[in-house]
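Amino acid chain:
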Amino acid sequence: MLRAFFIYLSESKALRKFAEQSPLAQPMAHRFVAGTTVSDAITTAAELNQKGMAVSIDNLGENVTNVAEARESAGLYHHILDDIAKRQLNANVSVKLTHMGLDVDESLARELVCGLIAHAAKINNFIRVDMEGSPYTQKTLDFVHEMHRVPGNQGRVGAVIQSYMKRSEADVEKLLAEGIRIRLCKGAYKEPPEIAFQAKSDVDANYLKLAKILVKSGVYHGLATHDERIIREIIAFAKREKLPREAFEFQMLHGIRRDLQEEIVREGWRMRVYVPFGTEWYPYFMRRLAERPANALFIARNLLRR
């Protein structure tokens, strides 16, 4: 019932207009989204760099419906890559294949992402291909494997693995066999029990199992979590294994646990902040809540924290 309610909210044009104009909604928008323009995202990235944190920039939006929208989205990412290089920022970008036109034309998405990876390689940068819901899992992983095999793309494109998916350990093994960089997260989409762990304890246990494989792999990975217990366990494991602190990085969302982000940096570990921006912030939040209604309490708590 809550999921249906949040989906309804995400599709309501009247509520979206109210939220975007309401002073009550602005603290949430500004806390978790950098702004609506590339300039806003670049400014936020520069501020985070000054605090010793790397950044991954994401233009909000997915499931474009025509070729023009897909090409416009890709053009915006080329702009971001140019600005990152110009400002010499410690930042990369995250893209969704459906934002690059995967649902419109797979060959179009391949063309656009290939162009972005080539651009990133030219300026010594990196493209993270985000993971979406389970209907896209295999297509996304196949795409990353294919792109990584292109001469010159090695180390320039990476994947995302969700620890709540039961297939993830096998997917990690295949990605590591080709030296592909991974962002490990827990996963936020609502998936059936046939393919995904439903209990938080099982998701957490699989996350830790996969994280320990990744940090010892010799490939540079990102561990995306706000769970301080898990973070501390990974740090303790890395120390026991005598792993260098530059062997991997932690990752968190912009505006979530800023106090913990800064603490991790002070302790000498690497931190990357995921910075979303764009006009799609309202449906972005409603869809995240629809995928996992418990996120509503999580966001509310973090509005009251640093």
Summary: DSSP finds 13 helices and eight strands in the chain. The longest strand covers residues 271-277. The radius of gyration is 18 Å.
